[in-house]
Amino acid sequence: MTASEDRLSPLHDEHVALGAAMTSFGGWLMPLRYDSDLAEHHAVRKAAGLFDLSHMGEIDVVGPQAAAALDHALIGNLSAVGVGRARYTMIVADDGTVIDDLVVYRLEPERFMVVANASNAPVVLGELQERTAGFAASVVDRTALALIAVQGPRAEEILVGLVAADAADDVRGVRYYAAVPVTVAGVETLLARTGYTGEDGFELFVEPEHAVALWRALLEAGTPLGLVPAGLASRDSLRLEAGMPLYGHELSRDVTPYDAGLGRTVKLDKVGADGEPLDFVGRAALEYRASRDARAELDGDAPARVLVGLQGLGRRPARAGYAVVVPGVPAPGEEGADGEPTVVGRVTSGAPSPTLGHPIALAYVDAAHAEPGTELAVDVRGRTEPVRVVPLPFYRRAN
């Protein structure tokens, strides 16, 4: 698909009217920024940002065996999710590597909504159709839905101002990783509270024909409270500060959930109706990967990779693909270099942190160099920049 063939969000004309710079992303033409990446980032941290996430893929799994089908298809225990709640999980290949990370909502006892990343949605749809064959469950493509997010410390205040008085408590009462039907500005929505920025916030799933009215109402109500429309660039810097993985960077067909520090999402203890351990796609590989005794054999003679946070101690930020090296060994091209540096990892995401005021990065490094406080360096275009391993997330909101 070329850029000219990218799908358009139901809000495309709104973005153009607001002067957004548009970019091709996951097969969609989406706003990269409206004015300033930095201003949009700070608005979300201090007040609120309005995001169009209509490029995300929604897939319904419906039927008497929908829960059992998802338990087989995904690594999580979806049958244990209560109605109105959501769970972060993944779909993996037979070898345990990540096809996509997902949020799954249980909307009714026999109805789930799977939310996939834009570029992976067609693959996830196909995998779910194949993996649920034989179960009394149907898989329905609902990617036509529009999805609008309001993220930031004033998000709840903005939403409460757009619902009827008797629905205000419904908004305030939405728990983290939960969803509830709410009429917002006269528009019927599924209001969820998950987020990808490290701030409090809501996602509003809405039929595409009502997206423009809802977007305009949110923008009108939120602007006096500091809300601004925000694009993909600020969304990426916000999620990086929050230490959240991005598919194609921290997650891919080259890593398992354990590599990414997300082993908690793998439910090896889930059981079937007969009480026996439940088989699911990728189980054998993940069970093997989880075994400490098998680790050395699995990884050969090299230490296992670990995803870590890196705090930049200099001014130049690391970027995706840059090598992480042992400090004190000159990088190729530096004066005095007499050999190759000892490479111990690779950066997956990196940028200056607008909130913290210094560069930050996520990287996979050898386990021997993954302890917080470890001093390392990154080869930034032929010159080494000092970094320090730090715990994740880089940023955590005060409340």
Descriptive account of the structure:
It contains 10 helices and 20 strands. With 399 residues, it is an alpha+beta fold. The protein is globular and about 60 Å long. The longest helix is centred in the middle third of the chain and has 12 residues, at 211-222. It folds into 3 domains: 3-52 and 145-241, Probable tRNA modification gtpase trme, domain 1 (Gyrase A, domain 2); 55-138 and 256-290, Aminomethyltransferase beta-barrel domains (Alpha-Beta Plaits, 2-Layer Sandwich), CATH 3.30.70.1400; 305-390, Beta Barrel (Elongation Factor Tu (Ef-tu), domain 3). The strands form 4 sheets. It has a 6-stranded mixed β-sheet with strand order 11-12-13-10-4-14, with helices on both faces. Helix 2 packs across helix 8 (232-241). Residues 305-395 form the Aminomethyltransferase C-terminal domain. It is an enzyme of class 2 (transferase). GO terms for molecular function: aminomethyltransferase activity; methyltransferase activity; transaminase activity. Substrate binds at residue 203. This is Aminomethyltransferase.
Count every beta strand, where a strand is a DSSP E run of 2 or more residues.
Answer: 20
The CATH architecture of the largest domain can be named as: 2-Layer Sandwich
Rg over CA atoms, rounded to whole Å, is 22 Å
Shape: globular
Largest sheet: 6 strands, mixed
Segments where pLDDT lies below 50 for 5+ residues? none
Instruction: State the helicity in percent bands.
Output: 10-25%
CATH fold name of the largest domain: Gyrase A, domain 2
Structural class: alpha+beta
First-to-last CA distance: 43 Å
Fourth-tier CATH superfamily name of the largest domain: Probable tRNA modification gtpase trme, domain 1
Provide the domain count: 3
Encode the helix/strand succession as letters: EHEEHEEHEEEHEEHHEEEHEHHHEEEEEE
Reading side by side through the largest sheet, how are the strands ordered?
A: 11-12-13-10-4-14
β content, as a range? 25-35%
* Helix count, DSSP H or I runs of 4 or more residues: 10
**Mean pLDDT, as a whole number?**
93
Q: Which CATH class of the largest domain?
A: Alpha Beta
